[in-house]
Design a protein that fits this description.
Blueprint: E1 2-6, H1 11-22, E2 26-33, H2 51-64, E3 68-72, H3 74-90, H4 97-116, E4 121-123, E5 128-131, E6 139-142, H5 151-154, H6 159-162, E7 165-166, H7 175-185, H8 206-214, E8 219-222, E9 228-232, E10 259-264, E11 269-273, E12 280-290, E13 302-305, E14 313-320, E15 323-332, E16 340-345, E17 348-360
Parallel strand pairs: 1-2, 1-4, 2-3, 4-7, 8-11
Antiparallel strand pairs: 5-6, 8-9, 10-11, 12-15, 12-17, 13-14, 13-16, 14-15, 16-17
Helix pairs in contact: 1-2, 1-7, 3-4
Length: 362
């Protein structure tokens, strides 16, 4: 099989490409240039698409003896990931840019270009498993290493993309095993730190990034009764469940911490209150992507996950058109519109939706 290996410059993608070569595939390595600022440098484990990453990817390809190319996808990344990130925050929602990147870049733009060039599949260093099932489309399952599992951010890719994807690391027991394999193979990235946070916000200051791109928009911070208790520089920079960085100088009457309960960008207000007011018992989702044509998820043991490294929550679900309704088996806190909600049966991913609302516990 002719395989396009996405080489980020990290250890995971390098080992994934090596395993694809070992499996007998005709492998070509591609580094995706996503940043508009190619001169940027990596800071520890922050940032991506830097000079160092491109160089590390090239060295890995040379070591594996496979062709290597750099594809400039910075326009697509800006249009589909960064612009979406800004628009979602501006609308008072909390996006997950990794989900959008997988949907529009790694398994759309990259795969489409690869398909046009005659490639059969894209191999990445994601931690997830594709397992043959009862339908022609393979089933997406959690990785063996639950701690590193990335099925949550892959659920949005859709059935068609699954048939043209390879995840060679899905069966490894731990990241230590990947690093040891990389060292044994002589790959110089074996000890390279993992990247984390939002890749295009290299300094980790998301609020600062939003202010630079969206401008300062002062407004009121309100308590749960509607009383003004402070001022913000832009409601877009807050997310439901946030505790730190509220900028409040007057403590609550009971002395307890306050959390963001609601972001209203139309009125440019942020409402805060006690932690208990964040509890929800039901969630509504939109823009459903369903991966399991043989399983509607409306009976049996179902769980959901609402954060990239969140735990399984028992739930019952129902679908009507493009709306997903979820009744939670236990209360959750800090559910923000715009987050991704993924439905599982055991380790299998059934589907995904974008959170549009939640029912609070009275």
């Amino acid at each position: 099989m002719k395989v396009l290996a996405a080489l980020s410059g990290g250890v995971d993608s390098a080992v994934a490409a090596a395993r694809a070569v070992d499996a007998g595939h005709d492998v070509v390595g591609v580094h995706m240039a996503l940043s508009k600022s190619r001169a940027q440098h990596r800071t520890g484990s922050r940032g991506c698409c830097s000079i160092e990453d491109a160089s590390d990817a090239q060295r890995a390809a040379a070591h594996l003896g496979i062709p290597y190319y750099v594809w400039d996808l910075s326009d697509e990344f800006e249009d589909f990931v960064v612009a979406d990130f800004l628009a979602e925050y501006e609308a008072g929602r909390t996006p997950n840019p990794c989900v959008r990147c997988n949907e529009h870049i790694k398994f759309a733009a990259l795969a489409d270009r690869g398909s046009a060039l005659g490639f059969d599949a894209v191999a990445t260093g994601h931690y997830a498993q594709l397992i043959p099932g009862l339908t022609p489309t393979p089933e997406l399952h959690r990785a063996v290493d639950r701690f590193k599992d990335q099925s949550y951010v892959l659920a949005v890719m859709g059935q068609e993309r699954l048939t043209h994807s390879l995840f060679p690391l899905g069966d490894v027991a731990s990241k230590d095993e990947v690093r040891a394999e990389a060292e044994a193979r002589g790959l110089r990235v074996s000890a390279k730190p993992d990247s984390y946070d939002i890749c295009f916000v290299a300094d980790g200051d998301t609020s600062g990034f939003l202010r630079r791109r969206l401008g300062s928009r002062p407004g009121a911070i309100l308590d749960a009764s509607g009383k003004e208790i402070g001022e913000h520089r832009g409601a877009y920079a807050y997310t439901v469940g946030q505790r730190r960085g509220l900028g409040l100088t007057v403590p609550a009457a009971d002395g307890r911490p306050r959390y963001v309960l609601e972001v209203n960008t139309a009125a440019n207000t942020v409402t805060v209150g006690p932690k208990e007011a964040l509890s929800v018992s039901a969630i509504t989702g939109r823009d459903i992507v369903w991966l399991a044509p043989d399983d509607d998820g409306e009976s049996g043991d179902i769980t959901i996950q609402v954060r990239a490294h969140g735990r399984d929550i028992p739930a019952t679900i129902s679908r009507e058109g493009d709306t997903l309704s979820v009744e939670l088996g236990e209360q959750l806190r800090g559910i923000a519109p715009g987050q991704s909600l993924v439905v599982y049966r055991g380790t299998r991913v059934l589907g995904q939706a974008t959170i549009s609302g939640a029912r609070r516990v009275e």
